[in-house]
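Task: sequence design from structure.
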């Protein structure tokens, strides 16, 4: 499933991270993914957020609803996107075959 997912992404647009989030929204599998972000002040400067509240993916970042409050997270703060089982879908600096 994961490789089929990535193969579809390879032919989509230039912003791979945005394509990943849009695919998660379109296939309605938000509860199967989580995102690790750079968050100053948190222990280790990282924070893990479930994507259950993912609202949209814009050209600059994503909007996630957390406890009834929508938060904008710019793409440059996203370090990792992974499935709930730990499989990494995106890691900052990861190379994609085009």
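Answer:
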């Amino acid at each position: 499933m994961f490789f089929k997912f990535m193969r579809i992404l390879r032919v989509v647009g230039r912003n791979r991270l945005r394509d990943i989030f849009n695919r998660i929204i379109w296939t309605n599998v938000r509860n199967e993914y989580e995102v690790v972000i750079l968050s100053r002040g948190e222990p280790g400067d990282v924070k893990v957020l479930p994507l259950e509240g993912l609202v949209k993916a814009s050209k600059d970042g994503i909007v996630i609803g957390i406890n009834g409050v929508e938060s904008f997270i710019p793409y440059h703060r996203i370090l990792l996107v992974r499935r709930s089982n730990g499989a990494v879908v995106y890691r900052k600096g990861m190379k994609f075959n085009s």
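The two ends are 19 Å apart (CA to CA).
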